[in-house]
């Protein structure tokens, strides 16, 4: 009697288990569809100075290299960051398109327009 009872206890979990290959037991899963972004903003880039607006950033200087220039910005907490071409900065998510000794060209992807910072 003990053996029969033990056999039933060991067999019961297998009887109630779902068969993953049985098509009648499958539940319909909602298909996940990727929504296209309504903006031209790059989503894979890290945003520098994300907590500050662009108005709060201060241009400290420009470093000129033969192949590409870099800009040095500081935020309201005096944190200094080195920004280069194609970086995304500030809450407005402005993408750096060009850094020259006279101006920095930014692309505002939310409004799809270029912004020029001349100095």
From TrEMBL:
Q: Which InterPro entries match?
A: PilP
The record's keywords, sorted A to Z, are: Signal
Q: Kindly indicate where the leader peptide sits in this chain.
A: 1-17
Instruction: Output the Pfam families linked to this UniProt entry.
Output: PilP
**Highest taxon, organism lineage:** Bacteria
The cross-references to Gene3D superfamilies, in alphabetical order and at most eight, read: 2.30.30.830
- Name of the featured protein: Pilus assembly protein PilP
Whose protein is this, by species? Answer: Avibacterium gallinarum
Q: What is the lineage of its organism?
A: Bacteria, Pseudomonadati, Pseudomonadota, Gammaproteobacteria, Pasteurellales
């Amino acid at each position: 009697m003990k053996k029969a009872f033990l056999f039933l206890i060991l067999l019961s979990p297998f009887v109630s288990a779902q068969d993953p290959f049985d098509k009648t037991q499958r539940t319909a899963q909602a298909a996940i569809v990727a929504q296209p972004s309504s903006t031209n903003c790059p989503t894979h880039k890290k945003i520098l100075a994300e907590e500050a607006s662009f108005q709060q950033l201060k241009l400290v200087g420009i470093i000129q290299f033969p192949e590409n220039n870099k800009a040095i910005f500081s935020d309201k907490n005096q944190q200094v960051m080195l920004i280069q071409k194609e970086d995304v900065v500030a809450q407005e998510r402005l993408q750096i398109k060009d850094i020259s000794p006279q101006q920095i060209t930014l692309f505002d992807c939310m409004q799809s327009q270029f912004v020029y910072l001349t100095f």
